[in-house]
Amino acid sequence: AKDRERFDAQAWALVHYAKLGRGIRSGPRRPLVQFRSLLDDGVAPLRAAETAFEADPAELADRVMEYVGRDRMSWFAVKPPRPSAESTPKLRPLPKTDVLLHLGWLSIELVRADTARGYFEMALRSDAANAEARAGLGASDCIEARWSEAQDQFQRSLAAAPDDPAVQLQAGNCDRARAAASALPAEREEWVRQARAHYRRIGKGDEAFPEALAMLGASYLLPGQDPKLGVAPLEAAARLLPGSLEIELLQARLQAALGSPGLASLQAREVFSRSGSRRLQEEAREFLQSLDSARSASRR
Fold first, then answer.
1. Which of these, 235, 236, 217, lies nearest to 227 by C-alpha position?
2. From 86, 108, 177, 300, which residue has the greatest number of CB atoms within 10 Å?
3. What is the distance between the alpha carbons of residues 56 and 248, in angstroms, rounded to a whole number?
4. How far is 58 from 70, CA to CA, in rounded Å?
5. How far apart are CA 198 and CA 211, in angstroms?
6. Is 172 domain-assigned?
7. If we measure between CA atoms, which residue out of 197, 232, 201 comes closest to residue 217?
8. pLDDT of the chain along its 300 residues, tens only?
9. Please, what is the Cα angle at 143 between 273 and 222, to 5 degrees?
10. How many domains does the chain have?
11. Which of 300, 291, 282, 236 is nearest to 260 (CA)?
12. CA 141/CA 135 separation, integer angstroms
């Protein structure tokens, strides 16, 4: 909690300084705009900050602390316009099937297979041809390692909607989970190959699907795979979803696999301190514990 409070305070101070600090550039070259632009171009965060603020980290920290310590800080007030009754959007109820699908995927996220299965079955009763609901049943079976049942559900779902990115993504995730559970290298390789085929069928370029790129990168974390090949898809996913802590944790795991446990630890600690998800915090905690165990073992 203290780390989170410290991070929030430092972030607030830096943004306040970058917006209102004395001598800060204005216009399109103002530091925060340039910093975001450099990140979008793939520049490393530390290098991007040094370029945008024209200072190394220590000097920038001194500037911010000096700014925060002033007796009076710059400020401005913003009075947002109050929308008229005519401009207030009208709420429209979601179709019942959509509600059931949302509840089903939420249950998958919470790893509650039985609950998810119930929602997806109700969705199919409302719409028997719904491919996403069928994929949800496959994802529910996958959680319980019911591989044959999951494969059957995904085959039917893909036959009905071969171009649906959500269906392709879930089919790929199940194949990747099956590969991770396999103890046979040849079998594992085949399931990894199939998982990547699903991820690569999803849109590219302007229609890139960040979740598919992230899972493609994650597939190179499995035993027997080359983690270096996971760098590019994970970086692409992070550019499309720069605030995703799930992707950042995958990048931390990749750094550990590439032999950089220090950087991996920094990234995982940031995920742990910033995440509001208990599941993600637990994953980050377990990963950090594995790094500590590996570090202790190497010292013996």
1. 217
2. 108
3. 24
4. 19
5. 12
6. no
7. 232
8. 567 777 777 777 787 777 766 666 555 557 777 787 788 778 888 888 888 888 887 888 888 888 777 656 566 666 777 766 666 677 888 899 999 999 999 999 999 999 999 999 999 999 999 999 999 999 999 999 999 999 999 999 999 999 999 999 999 999 999 999 999 999 999 999 999 999 999 966 556 799 999 999 999 999 999 999 999 999 999 999 988 999 999 999 999 999 999 889 989 998 998 888 888 999 999 999 999 998 888 877
9. 65
10. 4
11. 291
12. 10
Long-range contacts: 107-111, Cβ < 8 Å, 24+?
108/136, 108/139, 108/140, 108/143, 109/279, 110/279, 111/143, 111/279
Token pair, residue 252, equals 């931390």
User: Does residue 85 lie within any of the structural domains?
Assistant: no
Structural domain span for residue 276? 243-294
Q: What is the separation, in whole angstroms, between the first and last Cα of the chain?
A: 33
Read off the CATH number of the domain in which 261 is found: 1.20.58
